[in-house]
Amino acid sequence: MPSSFWKRTKRAENFRALCQEYGISPKTGYKWQKRMFQYGLAGMAEHSRRPLSHADQLAESVVCEMVRLKQAHRHWGPRKIRELYLRRHGTAASESSFKRVLERAGMTEPRRRRQRAGEAGRLWSGRRGQAPNEVWTVDFKGWWYDQRGQRCEPLTVRDEHSRYVLELRRVPDARTDTVRQCFEGLFQRHGLPGAIRSDNGSPFAVRHALLGLSRLSAWWLALGIDLERGRPGHPQDNGGHERLHRDIGVELEPRTAQQEALDLWRQEFNHERPHEALGMKCPAEIYQRSQRPYTGTPEDVDYPGLDSRRVTEIGKISWAGRPYFLSASLAGWSVGLKPLACGQWEVRFGRLVVGWLDPATESFQRAVLRPLEAGQA
């Protein structure tokens, strides 16, 4: 760079225009200017582009520790391994160094890209947990047999925002009473979530029932919990939970089906395993108990300002002397009825609109709607 450039930089009012005149970018001009001020003319010499550090320069003991940690957590990525190394030793090489070491050791796998979700379904709003307990997700992990021939099909529940695994429970069956008992324990320990997302399988949903409601999901609604349903054939709607199941399948299946092993894995996942989406924090560092306490199952659902009718054991209500069939899933609970200008009556269960009564035709029209937004009456 000619000396005239440096002389003119001292009096130039527009540095960018000066750089343009000499055919260099402002970024390059400022870089050279900084070097000139720091090192004088010697700073104008070509600098080596070699990285200041490299994985090949790491001490053998450091590389061995990286590999040892990876062997102990074979399903963790380089970023998680680096975070664990940092926590144990106080300092760590760069993330790229961890990647290169583990790649050369043949201990990494390329990440798969998930397909994006399409259009929303009837109880699918795309709602995602932005804070602890805003959305819980639930499913059954596919069954497997361990080395002792014991079958295991655990129930899994997680907090979507914090990734905290609330439950990893080996249950004897998938009946409503069994799953409800597990959730009663969860609600007592953690409080109530804002919504629960599930698939359309039993006992979370009934395919041909009113809005797919089951006795279990009707109980959730009665507790003031919104429903979120993944669309049939779209596992990506509950993608985070599917990833949890993949980790369980790889790290536990088929070695063991003992509840003690499931508890140990959940403890490590919640309290030791860092997550990239959490800024390399562990789920237990993010999760906190819900501010909505569980006080037990209410005797009934209240509808202030609306007429209400109790659903019979066979799923019917009586209105204006006529029986109307709704759903056996709502048996024992009351529904609220709101008059409409068209002469029909809107039927609600909790905050969910489930359909309309038409006294003129003595018929009930089912709704295919999403839950009402919080605060709507």
Structure overview:
With 377 residues, this protein is α+β, with helices and mostly antiparallel strands. The chain is 31% helix and 16% strand. A hairpin with a 2-residue loop joins β12 and β13. The protein is elongated.
Q: What's the gist of this structure?
A:
31% of the residues lie in helices and 16% in strands.
Structural class: alpha+beta
Q: Do you know the CATH architecture of the largest domain?
A: 2-Layer Sandwich
CATH class of the largest domain: Alpha Beta
Q: Helix segment count?
A: 11
Order of helices and strands: HHHHHHEEEEEHEHEHHHEEEEEEE
Largest β sheet strand count, sense and barrel closure: 5 strands, mixed
Fold-level CATH name of the largest domain: Nucleotidyltransferase, domain 5
In one word, what is the shape? elongated
In angstroms, what is the radius of gyration?
A: 30 Å
CATH 4th-level superfamily of the largest domain:
Ribonuclease H-like superfamily/Ribonuclease H
> Low-confidence runs (pLDDT<50, min 5 residues)?
113-121, 369-377
Supply the number of structural domains.
4
Query: What is the CA–CA distance across the termini?
Result: 73 Å
Mean pLDDT: 84
